């Protein structure tokens, strides 16, 4: 009781800062960012692919269906959960989290994603998309693992950091097309642990073309996983 009163008192004197704008907001707030910043986050529209969550150009397409890419080549994963579009201030804060040594952003970004995960998540294990050891030493942490651990902490689900490994260093993906990414990542992911019969939620920060999570899902399913779903904070609209 005394601890709660002390925390509330300190919260009024030193309110936490919003991770997007740096402004103060109440520690009692249920949202991961301040109200002003939450208003800038562009949620995924209802009109999106039922598998990869790609937003459709027309907002009138309300019934769930596959996008053209998924019709041509169905991904190995079953469904994608994504909180928002990879645009605006959210894109900037994910960049800080990923490239500028801000691991403390794991909690607000995972908090945003948690708002869009089903209340009853039929999952046995959370698995982050891996980094190659060279990239991990360069960054000092795997942002996907930090997100997965935070999701697991809140939902009380186990997180396994060593199920997947990246055995080959690959070129940066930002400027590559989907076909080029698939060539770039071919044979880069390996299975390190038994996942037979497991329902897995594969976690990453951003999905652009979906090639990375597709190839990771293929490895998991080839190892006997019962199902792979994907969870990302942001989904990039393909231009």
TrEMBL record:
It holds the Pfam family Pribosyltran. Belongs to the ComF/GntX family. Coiled coil: none annotated. Gene3D superfamilies: 3.40.50.2020. SUPFAM superfamilies: PRTase-like. This is ComF family protein. InterPro entries: ComF/GntX_DNA_util-trans, PRTase-like, PRTase_dom. It comes from the Bacteria. Residues 180-236 form the Phosphoribosyltransferase domain. It comes from Pelovirga terrestris.
């Amino acid at each position: 009781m005394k601890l709660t009163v002390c925390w509330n008192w300190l919260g009024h004197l030193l309110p936490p800062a919003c991770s997007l704008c740096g402004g103060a907001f109440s520690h009692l707030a249920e949202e991961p960012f301040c109200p002003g910043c939450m208003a800038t986050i562009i949620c995924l529209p209802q009109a999106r692919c039922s598998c990869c969550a790609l937003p459709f150009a027309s907002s009138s397409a309300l019934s769930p269906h596959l996008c053209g890419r998924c019709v041509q080549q169905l991904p190995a994963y079953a469904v994608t959960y994504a909180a928002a579009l990879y645009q605006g201030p959210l894109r900037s804060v994910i960049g800080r989290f990923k490239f500028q040594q801000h691991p403390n952003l794991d909690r607000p970004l995972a908090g945003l994603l948690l708002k869009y995960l089903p209340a009853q998540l039929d999952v046995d294990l959370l698995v982050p998309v891996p980094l190659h050891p060279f990239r991990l030493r360069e960054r000092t942490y795997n942002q996907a693992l930090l997100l997965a651990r935070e999701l697991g902490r809140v939902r009380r689900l186990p997180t396994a950091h060593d199920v997947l490994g990246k055995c080959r260093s690959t070129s940066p993906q930002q400027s590559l097309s989907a076909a080029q990414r698939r060539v770039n990542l071919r044979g880069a992911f390996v299975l390190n642990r038994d996942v037979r019969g497991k329902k897995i939620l594969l976690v990453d920060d951003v999905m652009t073309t979906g090639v990375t999570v597709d190839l990771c899902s293929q490895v998991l399913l080839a190892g006997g996983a019962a199902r792979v779903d994907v969870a990302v904070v942001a989904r990039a609209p393909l231009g």
